[in-house]
Structure formats: C-alpha cells, structure tokens
Design a protein that fits this description.
Elements: E1 11-12, E2 14-15, E3 18-19, E4 40-41, H1 45-56, H2 59-80, H3 88-107, E5 120-124, E6 134-138, H4 149-158, E7 166-169, H5 170-173, H6 181-188, E8 194-196, E9 199-205, E10 210-218, H7 219-225, H8 229-235, E11 242-245, E12 250-251, E13 254-261, E14 265-266, H9 276-281, E15 287-291, E16 298-303, H10 316-333, H11 335-343, H12 347-356, H13 358-370, E17 374-375
Parallel strand pairs: 4-17
Antiparallel strand pairs: 1-9, 2-3, 5-6, 6-7, 8-16, 9-10, 10-13, 10-14, 11-13, 12-13, 15-16
Helix pairs in contact: 1-2, 1-13, 2-3, 3-4, 3-10, 3-13, 4-10, 10-11, 11-12
Length: 380
C-alpha cells in the first residue's frame, strides 16, 4: 500500500479568537459579515418554529404555514401521549407531514399546498411479506399539477428533487435510522453500519485563504466493525470528495484517522466565516446527526450503504420521514399488520422508532426552520 499523502498545511479555524465548532449553520447568512452562530437551547421548539415562520415566511404563505404548524403540534401531542399506542404512527406521520408543509412554505418555493399529495405510496412485492418485501414509490413534484410532499421536502433539504419515479426498499431504509440502529443489527443479524465521527473541523490556511473540512474517526471503531479505510470512503458517500491523510494524533491512547476534503474553498476577502455555510452544506447529505441535551449537543455519523442498496439511500431527515409514512400507512389501512410487525423480530426496532424518534425529528426540523442548531436544555 502506498504511503498516505500529507495533510495540506492549515490550522483549525478561529474567528475573533473563538474556535469554530462544526454545524450545518455555523454562521449567519449574508449580510451578517463573518458572524458566528451559537447553539440555541429551547424547551419549546414549536415556539422557535413559529418565530421562524413569522420572520422568514412570505406573507401570502404565512397564514397557511401557521395553520399547518398548529395541526402538526396537535398531531404530535396525540402521537406521543400514552393511551394512543394503536394510532401513534398515523398521528405522528400527519404531524411530520404538516411540519414539512410549513417548512417548505417558509424555506422552499411552494406558494400553497392546497390539493397536494403525499408523494409516496407503499407497496408489497407479489406474495411478499410486510416490511421485509415492502417498498415505497416516490414521485417527482409537481405530478399532474399537484405538489408531492416528499419531493418538496427533498428539494428543501438537499437542493435537488427526484429525477423521476423512484423506488425505495423498506429493508434498505430501516437500517438508515440512527436511533435504535443496534436493534436493527440484532434483528437482521448484520453488522452495524454507522461510524461515529470523533470530530469535524473547519481548517484554514491564512497564507492561501483556503478553507476545507477534516473529519476524524477513531481507528478502533472501524476495526471493531471490520470496515476498511477505503470502504468508509466508498460506502459512506465520501469517495471523490475526501481523501485519507497522514496523522499521528491520538486521544487517550486511541489512534485517530483523518479524511481531508479534496476541494478547498478560497476566501478571497480574507474572512473565512463568510464561506462557512457553503463548506458545511457540502457534507450535509452524507452526515447523520443526533440531538443531545449534553455536550457536544450534536453527534455526527457516517452511514455505510452496501453497493446493492445505494439506490435506496436517503439523507437522514428524509429516511425518518419516509419510514414514518410507511408505518402510518399500514396503521391506517392494515392495523393488524402493524400489530404483527411489533410482535415480530423487528418489533423492538419499530417500537423504539415510534416512541423514541419523534422528539429527535422535531428538533432536527426545528433547526431547519431556524437555520441554527436547536436543542433541549438538560437542566431547568
């Protein structure tokens, strides 16, 4: 094996003597000149969303956005209260759907969601079984002059819509849910597919005014899961954009490996903070995140997609939405099948998703509204 290349010279970025931590929204957009953003703590994410709608949603759309937000909050309450277990997935899906409408009205292009459609349909292969042989069809928006909720969400989150009708297999979507992933691993008798990042750093060369990212992992995490360094690049969606570089760094005796962004962002005005949003956006589609009430408040992961499953790969928030759509659909139309799923080998995985994931989804989407990391404080 040839020796790894040296990392290009540069230092971890500081702005006004403040070290810049990684976030999808590390700084404020123009015209706020090189202004960093801090983590926003909130016990009431609904209030943060409402404020964002009032501030950022175009006036002709705001009334509809606020109405869908209220519906989302009411459905969320029904879907997370005890005593509604049998209807929980359906209520949660309708909460997610209305949140998505409000988000797209605020941050996207739609003028109204009147007559909009789900944009997804769930199917089962002939003579197939629920979940293991199920798949979703997703439709580009608009379709027959009607908006498709799922694709509108995709456009807001990723900047790109569906190129055409797309099939997503449920067995390939389920492992993409970060929370409770080990329950899936046990039920499917497969190795885990998430690799935790140890750190993500904005790196800057003051001599060239170049800005780029470095992603660090603990080497032992790859060894434990039998993942080669090249496989992490290939299946983690980093190949072509990152390269492994030499590092002798350790933390408490644990060896680190480092992947460096290949393409740099030049900052001709000498103020790298003005370019942070673009650099952060370049990895948004390949990072999964968990929201925590304790430092570091966000943890980021890389998901490994086997080659055979690449066609069903989604981004983090899209996979949460799609799986909840599927569970809500069978709860509505075939409730006895949902009962059978919760009693089967994937039952703990599904129960964990329905009960433990909604608050994660809510805070992740709140951050999309605010364009700022939002989390729940740990102490009142």
């Amino acid at each position: 094996m040839p020796p790894l290349p040296q990392a290009r010279p540069g230092e971890r970025l500081k702005v006004r003597e403040r070290q810049v931590g990684f976030s999808f929204w590390p700084s404020k957009p123009a015209p706020a000149h090189h202004a960093l953003q801090s983590l926003l703590f909130s016990l009431d994410p609904w209030a943060v969303i409402k404020r964002s709608i009032v501030k950022n949603c175009a006036r002709p759309r705001a009334k509809e956005a606020l109405a869908t937000l209220q519906q989302a909050q009411d459905f969320f309450s029904a879907g997370t209260e005890r005593g509604f277990e049998s209807a929980r997935p359906l209520a949660l899906y309708y909460s997610y759907m209305n949140l998505v409408k409000a988000l797209c009205l605020t941050r996207g292009n739609p003028i109204t969601f009147d007559q909009a459609q789900h944009g997804l349909s769930e199917q089962i292969s002939p003579n197939g079984r629920e979940l293991t042989d199920a798949y979703l069809n997703a439709y580009p928006s608009p379709n027959g002059n009607k908006l498709q909720n799922f694709d509108e969400l995709k456009q807001v989150l990723t900047g790109n819509g569906l190129a055409g009708n797309t099939r997503y297999d449920l067995p390939h979507l389920l492992p993409q849910i970060l929370s409770g992933h080990r329950l899936w691993s046990l039920a499917a008798n497969k190795r885990e597919r998430f690799i935790s990042t140890q750190d993500i750093q904005f790196t800057y060369d003051a001599h060239t005014n170049d800005l780029w990212l470095k992603i660090y992992f603990f080497a032992e995490d790859l060894t434990r899961l039998g993942v080669t360094h090249q496989r992490l690049l290939n299946e983690g969606g980093l190949v072509g954009d990152f390269r492994e570089v030499q590092t002798n760094e350790e933390i408490d005796g644990r060896r680190l490996i480092c992947y460096e962004q290949i393409t740099v962002t030049n900052c001709p005005n000498g103020y790298p903070a003005d370019y942070l949003l673009g650099v952060a956006a370049s990895v948004k589609d390949v990072l999964w995140a968990t929201v925590s009430t304790v430092p570091p408040y966000r943890r980021y992961y890389i998901y490994l997609s086997p080659q055979a499953e690449v066609g069903s790969r989604m981004t983090h928030r899209l996979s949460l939405y799609a799986v909840m759509y599927y569970l809500g659909s069978i709860t509505r139309y075939r409730p006895h099948h949902f009962d059978a799923l919760t009693e089967g080998p994937y039952g703990p995985r599904i129960q964990d998703f329905v009960t433990g994931q909604p608050l994660q989804f809510l805070y992740l989407i709140t951050s999309e509204f605010a364009h700022q990391d939002v989390t729940k404080p740990s102490i009142l």
